[in-house]
User: Which sequence fits this backbone?
């Protein structure tokens, strides 16, 4: 069984539909109202659509891009009317995600390597970073991968203990040095232990403090350098975890962390608790970093690989 086969199943699709329900309900209620009594996509409809997208936290720049594309399409295809606006919108969002090289779940698997695949996880406190690590560890473990965790968030109260609880729950080892210790040292030992155990994956937590750019960059750079003493290419992935329910604040966090380190993938959590699921579209477009995972529920299996086709299908399912 491959990684994608494990993450993707019928139950996950049902969970995705349920997790996006608030966004979908809010979106289509307002869209239906915007086109009521309209036969053409006029300036008033486009203004309404712009407001709907912005309030779904798609983001201003991405919203303008979508509006301009729909406007051009209406001018080009004269037969398109207001009753087809949702079809146009669906097509343009799907195209945007594809053009932005959004993560393609159907091709997802870990690369064949002689060393562990090291994931360094970054993000501010409260976004669900440690929980995301625990859920990832569970799903990789269930897919038959050997996983080691590193408790590198040594400054937040209970962060180390929380990850150790996840390790016990999932059945994977957690390397920790306790609170108020050097996170780079934890990362070194986690990668070293993972190498010695011939692990497939090492996932290292980091401090969730949103610092100014320079101290944050220094700390994350040190962690990388220390890892590379054991594994020269580590980390193979830098995963930024963002809370989807915070909307524009998630954009600001993404900006801060992408300036501080080379983020290679995104996990957007808590989409089930918000009507602002459009943040996935906006962040993907603005930062050109693939959204790799989305959180659509509190269950241990509710962290899903982001499948752009299924996401758009679910968002527009009536």
Assistant:
């Amino acid at each position: 069984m491959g990684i994608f086969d494990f993450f993707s199943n019928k139950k996950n699709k049902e969970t995705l539909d349920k997790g996006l329900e608030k966004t979908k309900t809010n979106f289509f209620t307002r869209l239906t109202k915007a086109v009521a009594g309209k036969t053409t996509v006029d300036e008033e409809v486009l203004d309404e659509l712009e407001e709907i997208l912005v309030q779904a936290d798609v983001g201003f720049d991405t919203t303008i891009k979508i509006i301009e594309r729909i406007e051009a399409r209406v001018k080009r295809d004269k037969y398109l009317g207001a009753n087809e606006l949702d079809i146009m919108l669906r097509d343009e969002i799907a195209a945007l995600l594809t053009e932005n090289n959004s993560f393609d779940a159907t091709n997802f698997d870990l690369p064949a390597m002689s060393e562990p695949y090291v994931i360094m996880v970054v993000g501010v406190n409260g976004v669900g970073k440690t929980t995301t690590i625990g859920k990832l560890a569970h799903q990789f473990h269930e897919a038959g991968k050997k996983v080691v965790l590193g408790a590198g968030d040594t400054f937040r109260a209970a962060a180390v203990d929380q990850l150790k609880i996840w390790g016990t729950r999932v059945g994977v080892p957690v390397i920790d040095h306790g609170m108020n210790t050097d996170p780079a040292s934890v990362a070194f030992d986690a990668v070293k232990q993972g190498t010695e155990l011939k692990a497939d994956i090492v996932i290292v937590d980091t401090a969730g403090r949103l610092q100014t750019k320079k101290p944050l960059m220094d700390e994350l750079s040190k962690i990388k350098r220390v890892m590379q003493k054991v594994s020269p290419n580590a980390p193979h992935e830098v995963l930024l975890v963002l809370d989807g329910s915070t909307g524009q604040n998630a954009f600001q966090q993404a900006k801060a962390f992408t300036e501080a380190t080379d983020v290679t993938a995104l996990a957007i959590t808590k989409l089930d608790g918000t009507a602002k699921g459009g943040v996935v579209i906006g962040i993907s477009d603005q930062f050109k970093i693939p959204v790799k995972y989305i959180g659509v529920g509190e269950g241990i299996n509710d962290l899903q690989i982001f499948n752009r086709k299924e996401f758009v299908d679910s968002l527009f399912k009536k």
